[in-house]
Amino acid sequence: MGSTGDMKDETLPPLRFIPLSYNHADSQASALRLVLTLNPQWEGPDNKIEFVRFTDGITNTLLKIINRKPGLTEEQIDNEAVLMRAYGNHTEILIDRERETTSHALLASRGLAPPLLARFQNGLLYRFIRGRPATHLDLVKPPLWRGVARRLGQWHAVLPIGGHSASSSSAKELPLSHQVDVDDQHQHKQEDDLDPIKPRVPGPNMWTVLQKWILALPTTTEEQRTRRRALQKELESVVRELDDGRGLGDDGLVFAHCDLLCANVIVLPSQCLATAATSDKEALNVQFIDYEYATPSPAAFDIANHFAEWGGYDCDYSMMPTRSVRRQFLTEYVKSYSQFRGITECAQQEIVDRLYEDVDRFRGIPGLYWGVWALIQAQISQIDFDYASYAETRLGEYYAWRREVDGSRAQAGEEMPLRERRWAEA
């Protein structure tokens, strides 16, 4: 389904480092120290610094820092605004922060992310994108999902994923390393006799991220160890079934966002979903933010994961896209992908057909991915969110898909779950 050819890793300029930390217990003062170190010209009586806290994320603290100097318009204030992302406690277990910075810088170099301004000890400072975050109710509206499909097609077409080849197994050669430490692997193997998976392509990708998370699951009780072993068996099964190189990109992998929930889709200014003039055939201009989970991945996983987010944090499965909507989305996506890859129009329909099948095959994997993630968050996070229940809901999606695929649900004479039913609708 196409190849990224000879795309290579890019050497990006070094990013400024500020040797300070954000302190959650002393939020405003520590954030002020950071922004004044970045912008010393903001100090003094002519400046009026304000902090706006965003609460959509369930992993990090995100602050917008603005300077309301007299005489500036809202647009001028926003153009100079700084976003401060401070990492949640212990999230390094889930996220490789060095690689997040690398991917953000790569995206910014292609005009697909706001410019990075600096790193600090537990976070990043970068430019603000004017616009508004989508809601999960927005995701189902044609002008919005057409915009997402076009932007995602561009991402998957133009971004290099690094030297994925048989001879390039070193994590340092790849832009997004989520490799599990060898000593950690050995320790886990002795403790619980888990053999880490060996994906078809060496190096980091969404399969190795999921493997790392399973290895990080708690093993204090026999129940925890039993569940960990069961989830490892599921991972081995899906890698066997789905890691086949069939998809778009280099060896079946593209540079994927892997976390396209509604709050990470920004509708750019001068456009409004409520505008009567916006026809269903038009596409809004959107940008994607938050690149913590960006990594090489099958395109079908990134797309299926986005579709899973149409239900929002509450997992409202009645919002899942039907077969006709998925095909329309993929048609927009492939048009965009083909434009940036130089694929002729006559070849596009075959790509849509094959990608439609691939997305269908991957529809249960986001539940496994985020279910395991939430099991870890339930252990480490101090955020007021019921990760334990969320884990069971997401893992339930995966097992429902598995029972549909192997026919055990039908054999037992059980009713098809809502998510699967909605997915099967015309």
UniProtKB/TrEMBL annotation:
GO molecular function ontology, one term from the record: ethanolamine kinase activity
Protein name (record): ethanolamine kinase
GO cellular component terms given for this protein: cytoplasm
Pfam families xref list: Choline_kinase
Basic and acidic residues bias (residue ranges): 180-198
EC top class, as a word: transferase
Pathway linked to the protein: Phospholipid metabolism; phosphatidylethanolamine biosynthesis; phosphatidylethanolamine from ethanolamine: step 1/3
